[in-house]
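Re: Re: ligand-bound prediction request (bumping)

Still looking for help on this. To restate: I need the protein modeled with pyridoxal-5'-phosphate bound, output as structure tokens. Inputs repeated here so nobody has to scroll up.
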Amino acid sequence: MSTGRLTIDLDAIAANWRALDSACGGRAAAVVKADGYGCHAPAVARRLLREGVRTFFVAVAEEGAEVRRAVGPGPDIFIFSGPCPGDEPLIAAHALIPLINSPAQARDVLGTDQPFGVQLDSGMNRLGLEPAEFAALKDAILAGRPQLLISHLACADTPEHRQNAAQLRAFITMTEGTDVPRSLAATGGIMLGPDYHLDMTRPGVGLYGGHPFAGARAVLRLDLPVIQTRTVAPGEAVGYGMAWRAVRPSVIATVAAGYADGLLRAMGGGTLRLFADDIPCPLVGRVSMDLITADVTDAADLPRTLTLLNHRQTVDDLAQAAGTIGHEILTSLGSRYARLYKGA
Ligand SMILES: *Cc1c(COP(=O)(O)O)cnc(C)c1O
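Reply:
Sorry for the wait, this slipped through. Here it is.
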């Protein structure tokens, strides 16, 4: 084995979906954009279909087509970015449901027999019709029988932020009396409680084991091959910039994965460990493009593989070490890893 092996536990994703679904009273859809947060959208969608999921969300039409091929006819597949120019054949061929985000997208869809939903901007100012735009188009939109009205929270992972309640109020005000199913909450919004659940929730990162779903089961295991080991004397340095220096006679393992595999360079120099069976071995020195180095002095034997991701060290730990969020760690997972699926 010369590349890492990434094991994706589809049963854990299914268990996370079940837990999130019951946390919001059985209203959870599933977000599988960005190749299922790096976990392979077709495999994730097929497993969740078996679990009972009948509504999926993706970012763009191409992803929707891939999910449709995986789940077959029947489930609803919504596209966050809506109908972009040139998408019409793909949307029609795969029975996708674009969300209208702008007056231009409304013009393209209204009056056709294309099924659609609508995304409203309740204060994030990223995607969606502004309140005034929606007001101007409301009659035409409702006459076209939208399947869903959604909006997205800017600060859901900060529960005490005033923006959450303000966006909930704005969304309710815009959609009051429409009779169309409404959805506001992603993973963070589910955690904010029942006021935010409305008719449907849209968990993404929580399915894949990430914050802010605190009770999540770990989904990923990443085993990395050790290419060579060496002994370094006290005072010798390891890696680019000589950023780490031995203070005792140390055994250093050189491991085949680096920032080209999604191990962000910013992870180096922190508190991350690689596991030799159960023994934690500190990640030392800088992360290079194809390699990292670990201090395996305390391992029982010279390890042939080391584990970077497991239930003891999750995507959130890697995210914290790199100063980012679990979403970015997941979607950075490298294309060189051999991928194994549990529960396919
Ligand atoms: C990505 C996304 C989600 C899922 O968010 P998570 O934080 O991953 O749960 C839900 N809704 C919209 C509009 C999104 O863009």
